[in-house]
């Protein structure tokens, strides 16, 4: 009787595992941000060495949602980790974490179902939008033209330094540096489940009055901002 119960439990577990480990859809970059990914505003300053601060007041500017991993790199890594044949625990944990992030970001059930059960078909435009703007990969900061250095399509070292969760910060760096599917899936499973980008960091940006731009405070030396990420 006991053996029969174990057998039935094993069958049920395998059914659940197959359901969880169905192949995901294949993603592509969608530059159109989902409307419910929140942003923020900050109060600028114009004195050399001053710090802009998060807040709403007259003259406040909209903060930009900066990607730590470039959009194309993020999507390429998601596809490499998940759009192939399901491979086990790392795959399962990574897929479940992406689903948790999508759900926490306000993605509708259609997006979650599309990603989870896409079976390597192309993701829908809305699913691509939520994946491209995955919240643990976003930080709020001054617009690119107001930064003394902006990486364009490269890894955003400054944004990376502003990721508040250390585990997520390390995972994002590992995702950038590693292209092994199993390892990537494991790194994705370590991302923080967030509903919003990391907020505008008070005192972490400093104004250079000569350039009329901001840089990370840790990069502000000799009264000036660098024009590279260093």
Key descriptive features of the protein:
3-stranded antiparallel beta sheet, two-stranded antiparallel ribbon, alpha+beta, 7 strands, elongated, 230 residues
Structure explained in plain terms:
- This protein has 230 residues and is an alpha+beta fold.
- 39% of the residues lie in helices and 10% in strands.
- It contains eight helices and seven strands.
- The chain has helices spanning 2-20, 71-82, 89-104, 109-116, 125-132, 157-161, 166-177, 181-189; strands at 41-43, 53-54, 61-62, 64-67, 138-141, 205-208, 213-216.
- Strands 2-1-3 form a three-stranded antiparallel beta sheet, with no helix packed on it. It has a two-stranded antiparallel ribbon with strand order 4-5. A two-stranded antiparallel sheet has the order 6-7.
- The N and C termini lie far apart (68 Å).
Break the fold down into its secondary structure elements and pairings.
Blueprint: H1 2-20, E1 41-43, E2 53-54, E3 61-62, E4 64-67, H2 71-82, H3 89-104, H4 109-116, H5 125-132, E5 138-141, H6 157-161, H7 166-177, H8 181-189, E6 205-208, E7 213-216
Antiparallel strand pairs: 1-2, 1-3, 4-5, 6-7
The main β sheet shows up as: 3 strands, antiparallel
In total, how many beta strands?
7
Name the quaternary structure: single chain
- Span between termini: 68 Å
Q: What proportion strand?
A: 5-15%
Sum up the overall morphology in one term.
elongated
Poorly predicted segments = 4-19
H/E series, N to C? HEEEEHHHHEHHHEE
Alpha-carbon Rg, integer: 21 Å
Sheet with most strands: strand arrangement: 2-1-3
| Overall average pLDDT | 90
Percentage of helical residues? 25-40%
What is the overall number of helices? 8
Summing up helix and strand content along with how strands pair, one would put the structural category as alpha+beta
